[in-house]
Amino acid sequence: MGMLIDGRWHSEDRPRNGTGGEFVRPESPFRAAIGDPAFPAQAGRYHLFVNAGCPWAYRTILYRRLKGLEDIVSLSFTLSAAGPEGWTFGDVPEAILGARHLHHVYTAADPAFTGRCTVPVLWDLEAETIVNNESSEIIRMLDAAFDGFDGVNPQRFYPAHRAEEIDALNEWIYPDVNNGVYRCGFARSQTAYDEAFDRLFAALDRLDALLATRRYLCGEEITEADWRLFATLVRFDLAYHGQFRCNRNALIDFEHLWPYTRDLYQQPGVADTVDVEAIRGIYYGSRPPGILPRGPNPDFTAAHQRAG
After folding, report:
1. Catalytic annotation on 54?
2. Does 182 participate in catalysis according to the annotation?
3. Whole-structure pTM value
């Protein structure tokens, strides 16, 4: 999808694979936090640049809704599909910086930036810079940084009494499932694909067995671990099963994972954050010939029968 090198856009794709053909995800370079001395928690100070189809950006879209931060953190979307200059805002520049492409946001923060221009981006409107572009850290900020502000949901999805359990779940769900689907889709050797495929479905089987014994990953309480997993599961049949060759079976074939996904989808406010066409657009529209599939059409609204 291209990248910036010393602040200049290069549209040719650069390798993201190791010597064995395995996909290697680069580290996010901006890692400050709301609550640091330079970035105090203030309503109206922060803005998110996101893509509705991207699972990493989707985490922040979801948390903004769940925590009731719509009047505290503003938001703008790129178009679903990437173009020759990466994520784009289309013919009409976005309102905050007048940017046409996401790479303009990165060079506004660092005119000599080198790297990939990914979403989400948490932008400081006052300091005019990027605070953070690592989704796992941004959702932790959104979970706690604005506690006590008017209208903010006080529920914590990373509560102290569950922190160790959530961290332990994230430690294997991220590499094998969240990133595992990408390790299948972007593998450049049969060996790398096979290894990623086996780990992905072993993890999904493990999760299915776990959810046979409890409603959510940590019991009867929805936590960060559930929402991080949901961002992948809600995209599984729509994109990863076909486009990324994650096709041992579909999500709807899992006895417990599929109703669990519907349970989370049907939580208040969540359905409005899931943009099925954007999900199809990011995974199929960005790749030649850009034809969007008309199916599958999983019914996330069907009764899940997981009420505790």
Report:
1. yes
2. yes
3. 0.97
